[in-house]
Design goal:
Main location (chains A, B): cytoplasm
GO biological process, one term (chains A, B): prolyl-tRNA aminoacylation
Organism (chains A, B): Candidatus Thioglobus autotrophicus
Shape of chain A: globular
CATH topology of the largest domain in chain A: BirA Bifunctional Protein, domain 2
Largest interface: A-B, 56 and 54 residues
Oligomer: homodimer
Number of strands of chain A: 31
CATH architecture of the largest domain in chain A: 2-Layer Sandwich
Structural class of chain A: alpha+beta
Radius of gyration of chain A: 29 Å
Number of helices of chain A: 15
Pfam family, one (chains A, B): HGTP_anticodon
Subcellular location (chains A, B): Cytoplasm
Chain lengths: 561, 561
Amino acid sequence: MKTTQLLIPTQKEAPNDAQIISHQLMIRAGLISKLASGLYSYLPMGVRILKKVESIVREEMDKAGSQEVLMPVTQPAELWQESGRWQEYGPELLRFNDRHGREFCMGPTHEEVITHLAAQYIRSYKQLPMSFYQVQTKFRDEIRPRFGVMRSREFIMKDAYSFHLDQASLQQTYDLMHQTYCKIFDRLGLDYRPVLADSGSIGGDASHEFHVLADSGEDEICFSNESDYAANIEKVAFSKQEVTCHAQAVEESVLTKKKTSIEQVSEFLNVAPSQCIKTLIIKTSEGLKALALRGDHELNEIKAHNLFGEFELASDEEIKSLGLKKGFIGVKGLSIELIVDYSASVVCDFVCGANEWDQHLTGANWQGVEFSEADLRNAVAGDDSPDGKGQLIIKRGIEVGHIFQLGDKYSKAMNSNVIGESGKAVTTTMGCYGIGVTRVIAAAIEQNYDDRGIIFPEAIAPFQVVIVPINYNKSTRVKTLADNLYQQCLEAGIEVLLDNRKERAGIMFADSELLGIPHRMVLSDTHADNGNIEYKARNQSDKLEVSYDDALAFIQEKLAE
Amino acid sequence: MKTTQLLIPTQKEAPNDAQIISHQLMIRAGLISKLASGLYSYLPMGVRILKKVESIVREEMDKAGSQEVLMPVTQPAELWQESGRWQEYGPELLRFNDRHGREFCMGPTHEEVITHLAAQYIRSYKQLPMSFYQVQTKFRDEIRPRFGVMRSREFIMKDAYSFHLDQASLQQTYDLMHQTYCKIFDRLGLDYRPVLADSGSIGGDASHEFHVLADSGEDEICFSNESDYAANIEKVAFSKQEVTCHAQAVEESVLTKKKTSIEQVSEFLNVAPSQCIKTLIIKTSEGLKALALRGDHELNEIKAHNLFGEFELASDEEIKSLGLKKGFIGVKGLSIELIVDYSASVVCDFVCGANEWDQHLTGANWQGVEFSEADLRNAVAGDDSPDGKGQLIIKRGIEVGHIFQLGDKYSKAMNSNVIGESGKAVTTTMGCYGIGVTRVIAAAIEQNYDDRGIIFPEAIAPFQVVIVPINYNKSTRVKTLADNLYQQCLEAGIEVLLDNRKERAGIMFADSELLGIPHRMVLSDTHADNGNIEYKARNQSDKLEVSYDDALAFIQEKLAE
């Protein structure tokens, strides 16, 4: 296509509300336009990218034997009441009434609708396993939509759901989807990692997230430096450790006036935070409990939630009611249950609160303290990998996919049963599999940009090649050469953009770089004097002179690489 | 693909709420599934059809130089307030509040959003003309959703919008879109007509509807039997006629006791309805008016609306207040303005009410009656075509497309201006162009079915070819032959379905006919004994024996036809 046939409203400045680079660049490159908070229109270049992502996703889902369906955006409340989520789901679920006053929601996800469909149409075990997917508009009423299409209210998801007779069959499809997702993200040209994840509010038994690695990622993910182990930081599980040290010190109470944080205490006493033990008091449905962790570790709220159910940190009043002194709480002489993190219980000669104002203990040890042990903490860089191979590295990632084993949460609530081999009704077992299609674009940009703009992976670039002729409107020679090369590219099936504007070369270069088109061919009278064109790859800094007659073959070779 | 890999939940009975054949067949063939009133999920076969329609639409829109965009389903109230439609639009516009209480609607159409985009990004006349389209989910909160996807609440539209410097440029794009729509409906394999239409509530100056001809159509459309003239019945315009008769009769008042309708009077007096004149009293913002039409003609409410603005039929009280007698109102001696339809004003020696109870006049004539003339009526079959060529035929149609010249209704209200050649701001002129993508499927079925099911046009059939092997699971020979032919078809790029179920032949035949797959190849031991397969086209009744070895070549020839 030619640039003048397209609306590509590039701009130099990013809007004020664009905090992250993908948001800034998507607006600046004219891929999207903000309609309202969390609502974006995709402009022609944005749609080209979107269609490419969608088409790769569809091809691989089809290959995996998943059947494409299309369910409504609008969902009746009754189904969500059946699953129990009408009440459970927070205000992100946009609820509304139709003109007759009936309740509906705009679907943030489609478990209810697909399970309802399966209950209607899948009746025999012989039909199983079966999986369905759709590429569809979702809505989530985010309280603070931000980061452009990364956390918008309306977005496009590929969501898929599978139905099975048993767990073994689910595991098979789950593994196939894991492979399929790897193929999809490979083809999209992204540097990503599948990681063990928590299955969160969707419920269910096993799940993996697919993260695009990028410094701006919202999530922390942990890898082994020696094995395939990878998990969301929330999900890294630690086991009970052997005590390898010996208590040597003599316990003493020391004055630590106004030193209430681990940082202050460790600095004041010149002891590493890993030699300090901190005690948190939490309030659970069973009353107050004390949790002890190493000073350099953080409580993992998901692990705590799994152990204690709903909980919160105790208030100052509640701490006081136990006779404890905030900032100086220790592990000795507590009147409530004490649970010690596996890494904390193996420390010897540690520092902890003395349970007296302005006093800490030094040289403390666990002897004589009554406690149980548990895995309570987040991983930190350098931890031993839970698979016993190597140490953990922590990187930031952007979640672009998520696969879950749902079990029978929905199929039980919504009566998705089949007649089993024995003639008895069996509740189906489900999996679900999502990819944030619009999010993939933002994540690809977060991972691939420089100070001049986007560097799109080839598979999702809006065009493969841009031809930039200098003085297209003044030099007949340049125009003829450019038109001819453009025609050659079109006939070879190359997605090529001819910049036929009457703009200065600098503006055309800047726009093509901002847009991230992978290959650029420049035509000018100067190059033509030597029978050449100038080639530059978007992700390389050097330029090449290539003979005009070889230009097509050259670019075809580049595209084949 | 193989039938066992797909969910194709065919059923013998149609649901009770399915009144029209396309709704019945789409449910029975397992193309769609009802989720709630006016909300349908597309099952795998339905999605295959949908994608084919979408892809033809996209290809032709791209060829016409229109740029694909994607705007949100959710639209902020502010834009609709700017255009004035927030108040104007009825309860079909689904309005809701987000979690912060801000007002939004689910878009039934996107004039506001696209005009807002154009106002932001199209700034110079040099960028014009420019047109945009999207294939997108719309919502219209129908009071009584019915007819399946024909009048559902959520549906998919291809909507397009064009921006111009002047009317001449709009006309050019409008004509191009007219041609593009013809190409689209040609490729879809539909028998359709573009007809002149009223532009309705969208506003604007000129419009055409594209109707698929089908007896079940909601609209009546008129064609000349001798020319290209075609128009929605509401839009057929008549001109003033010459009087060609002479008043010969003597006017008499006759007793017509309790004969209050044209049918009763014409039968009682043995006079054709076309020789009777009926008088309607309407209430307008300027007071009561009398309208006279021929007894065999109906008032065209749109024409009346264009002449008189909002109006309604006068109440019994209002008729009484004029001293008139309902059922016996005539054209003589009225105290209010009388407007006579062009076809009524040229009748001589007619029958009309006598303005007395139980009395009509016979042999009445217009001499001495004060009136003005206007085009007030709907066309009837046999009317002279307004272009002077031939007579009108009336058929029923289903509206699947609509193109409008919008003028500056939206661009003016929403400040879509460009800097013109002279340096001054010019308001853009707009066109808009819609195709009901999901509606096209229902319309195609209304036009193509028989008592066994759907007869899909080749371009949108879910599969091109179905292979039905008899005893696939028992006869190794049949299985080998079928698998081999299936493989040949796949390798030749044919979209083929292999019915590999353990079902009786009758069920497999019935399902393939219900689904409307254009070409069927049957393999059985009997046919194999002769080295043959049996071929049947869905739209033909005869079966052919074809040599197995020639089967692929044969089917390729059929597909090329």
